[in-house]
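Q: Please design a sequence for this.
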């Protein structure tokens, strides 16, 4: 404005929106790895994209109606690390512990040290906005010990057969991302290494169960997805998906859904096409398997 002029504001408003796209689908689960479903809605964390920079994004919490596939923004998670700054960390995994009625959280500190951090709370993270102070995870790619930069996409659960918490994630090695599996007596560490994948350029690491067997899945180059044995991370194969708009590098978020004594599989993924800004991507795709698996 020219000197001496003024502007009168009659109204100011702040809105939380679903962003320019949604990416990085992380299903909210219970400690045993089962999806958290309430009133017919599956709860999912999506990175809610901003326009240009990676730290324009924030961690959205959504629910998906399993009949109509209506997707609804339920809330948002923001993070701190004791320095008085609010961070939009994302690619977050949330696990609900029924025994303690707590939500256990691991997030990727994308706009900061780019490693893994944890938080816990009894607040209802499924709804509303929340601020969580987090702590750097004690695991092989810990940033403070000089190994953590470019580490992301955690998935974890309690393996009752092993009597351990198991954590999978990817980290940069020799200019490409590799999948790692670790274990701990406690959900928030100290984690020690169990296995490392031989194949690389991985993203969106998921521990999932299909047909009564656990696997570790990852996205890969272009439209390739890797299948690894659990817990050895031995290579078992790949599957492919061609996106309509030329997108690439989605996530293999495969969710087992119960239908009585049968199980059907929902695949939630996204692509990186149709961008309007560097990190504005996130076209969503939902695939429902046409066959069911009958449990013994």
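A: Design:
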């Amino acid at each position: 404005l020219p000197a001496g002029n003024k502007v009168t504001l009659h109204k100011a408003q702040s809105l939380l929106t679903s962003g320019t796209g949604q990416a990085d689908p992380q299903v909210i689960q219970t400690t045993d790895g089962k999806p958290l479903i309430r009133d017919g809605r599956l709860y999912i964390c999506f990175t809610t994209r901003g326009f240009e920079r990676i730290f324009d994004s924030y961690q959205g919490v959504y629910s998906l109606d399993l009949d109509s596939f209506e997707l609804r923004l339920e809330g948002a998670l923001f993070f701190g690390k004791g320095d008085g700054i609010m961070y939009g960390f994302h690619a977050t995994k949330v696990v609900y512990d029924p025994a303690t009625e707590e939500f256990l959280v691991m997030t990727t500190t994308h706009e900061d040290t780019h490693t893994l951090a944890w938080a816990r709370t009894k607040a209802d993270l499924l709804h509303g906005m929340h601020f969580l102070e987090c702590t750097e995870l004690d695991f092989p790619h810990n940033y403070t010990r000089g190994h953590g930069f470019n580490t992301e996409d955690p998935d974890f659960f309690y393996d009752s057969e092993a009597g351990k918490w198991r954590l999978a994630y990817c980290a940069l090695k020799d200019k490409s991302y590799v999948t790692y599996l670790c274990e701990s007596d406690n959900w928030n560490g100290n984690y020690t290494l169990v296995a490392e994948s031989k194949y690389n350029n991985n993203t969106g690491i998921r521990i999932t169960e299909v047909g009564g067997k656990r696997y570790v899945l990852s996205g890969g180059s272009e439209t390739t997805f890797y299948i690894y044995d659990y817990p050895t991370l031995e290579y078992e194969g790949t599957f492919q998906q061609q996106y309509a708009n030329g997108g690439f590098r989605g996530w293999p978020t495969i969710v087992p859904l119960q239908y009585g004594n049968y199980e059907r599989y929902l695949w939630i993924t996204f692509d990186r096409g149709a961008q309007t800004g560097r990190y504005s991507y996130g076209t969503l795709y939902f695939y429902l398997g046409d066959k069911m698996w009958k449990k013994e």
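Q: Thanks. Anything notable?
A: The radius of gyration is 19 Å. The mean pLDDT is 92.
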